[in-house]
Amino acid sequence: RALHGESGRGPFVVVDCASIPSNLIESELFGHVKGAYTNAVSDRVGAFEAANGGTIFLDELGELPPALQPRLLRVLETRRIKPVGANEFKDVDVRVIAATNRSLEDEVRAKRFRSDLYFRLAVIRVALPALRDRRDDIVVLAKAFLAKHNEKTDSELELTSEVLAALTSYDWPGNVRELRNVIDQAASLSSEGL
């Protein structure tokens, strides 16, 4: 989101590849035309077309079914999509950002992810270490999450030094999401402070 926000580009569209059934992901990404399949009662714009001029974020890309990987590669190479059931291609101008919790290098070696797609996507790689490996971020993030809670609830809760010490000593297996949930839960249950 931050990369997109600084880009000055158009829309930001998120696709969670892990949450879409494999029989629907092609339509979700590229759209479909009326009558393309049963229940396709109208045309549907896919995520790539919706993100035209902007950024598409493919979250959990490692979950993308192998059968769809060549089609995604083709879109990345040609910058053109073909909605399911359509006869014509459409040009798209999108910045693609992808994330996964899998090691795509391992997936490529195991033949579960196409190497050509991996190398097409891995132009610029950002490895984000686990929160336990960047403990200095814990205090910054906790304060930011609490500030957001305070803003929403018009409260003035603060983190005590004891709480900050406890937060920084925990390993956070759920990473930033777990930290955010703990801060939200504690702030929601607190009436005087954390």
Any key phrases for this structure?
two-stranded antiparallel ribbon, mainly alpha, single chain, elongated
Q: Can you describe what's shown?
A:
The chain has 194 residues and is mostly helical. 41% of the residues lie in helices and 9% in strands. It contains nine helices and five strands. A hairpin with an 8-residue loop joins strand 3 and strand 4. The longest helix has 18 residues.
What spatial form do the alpha-carbon principal axes imply?
elongated
Mean pLDDT: 90
Radius of gyration: 21 Å
Q: Total strand count, please?
A: 5
Across the major sheet, the strand order is 1-2-5
By DSSP (H or I, 4+ residues per run), the number of helices equals 9
Low-confidence stretches: none
Largest sheet: 3 strands, parallel
What is the N-to-C succession of helices and strands? Answer: HEHHEHEEEHHHHH
Strand content: 5-15%
Quaternary: single chain
Q: Give the helix/strand class.
A: mainly alpha
> How far apart, in Å, are the first and last alpha carbons?
29 Å
- Amount of helix: 40-55%
